[in-house]
Design goal:
Strand content: under 5%
Number of helices: 8
Oligomer: single chain
Order of helices and strands: HHHHHHHH
Radius of gyration: 23 Å
Structural class: mainly alpha
Helix content: 55-70%
């Protein structure tokens, strides 16, 4: 198994275990009590958090998704990766977003700022209480805003779990992963401060996006291997043809 792939899989499993322990201890409620009060969350409508780091970041993420698809669909061959891999990365990014939204739309749990202990109208119900409606708007689990960054963790996979041995620098993949995590964690932290999501919602968003990316890339690798090998063979044949033209036999 590729060493960097091992790191990714083990990291995902470690996060899953830590998140399950976090949920079991009820740490979400403890953290939200530190931030909120019986009258609500003081930072819920703070301008920088609401307008810049929520609305602005979401718009920026939309722009990044458009750029990723432009990169994926561009016909040029020399854009860092074969087109088939670029398309796979773009599709997996969208699938990660869709998976988060599907779970979110099925969630019966309302957000902390709706809980009665923070001045809202509904009781605090854990997202583990499947099918238990709290009487509020629901659809709060997992963190949708955090997926603005977490959906792009798939950008790291072509370098950390390459289809073909082409001498790709793993550092490029780690940089992409760090950037996606930084944006996702920032978005999740902002929503926690505003009272929209407890910390575990951000962790579950990463688990969902990371799980979709790893599973999807693993399934796509067999399909991706054929175009990659064909591209390599084409380059070899092209070089061979050039060599033959440049070094024609002397009379």
């Amino acid at each position: 198994m590729n060493r960097h792939r091992q790191y990714l899989v083990r990291g995902w499993l470690a996060l899953l275990l830590l998140t399950l322990v976090w949920d079991a201890t009820g740490a979400d409620l403890t953290v939200m009590r530190w931030i909120g009060s019986p009258t609500g969350f003081a930072l819920q409508h703070q301008w920088w958090l609401e307008r810049v780091l929520h609305d602005g970041l979401r718009q920026a993420a939309t722009g990044v998704m458009v750029a990723v698809w432009a990169w994926a669909l561009w016909p040029a061959k020399r854009l860092g990766l074969p087109r088939s891999e670029r398309l796979t990365v773009a599709v997996l990014s969208v699938l990660g977003l869709l998976a988060v939204n599907l779970v979110k739309n099925a969630s019966a749990t309302s957000c902390p700022w709706d809980w009665s202990i923070f001045g809202g109208q509904v009781p605090a119900v854990s997202h583990w209480a499947w099918g238990v409606f709290d009487g509020g708007p629901g659809r709060c689990f997992p963190g949708g805003h955090a997926s603005s960054g977490m959906a792009f963790v798939t950008l790291a996979l072509p370098w950390l779990w390459p289809v073909a041995r082409e001498g790709r620098a793993p550092s490029t993949g780690w940089w992409w992963l760090a950037a996606a995590l930084a944006v996702g964690l920032l978005a999740g932290f902002v929503q926690t401060l505003r009272g929209a999501h407890p910390p575990s919602h951000t962790a579950w968003t990463l688990l969902i996006c990371g799980g979709v990316s790893l599973a999807g890339w693993a399934l796509a690798r067999r399909w991706l291997a054929s175009p990659a090998q064909a591209d390599v063979q084409g380059q070899i044949n092209g070089h061979a043809g050039d060599d033959g033209a440049q070094h024609a036999a002397l009379p």
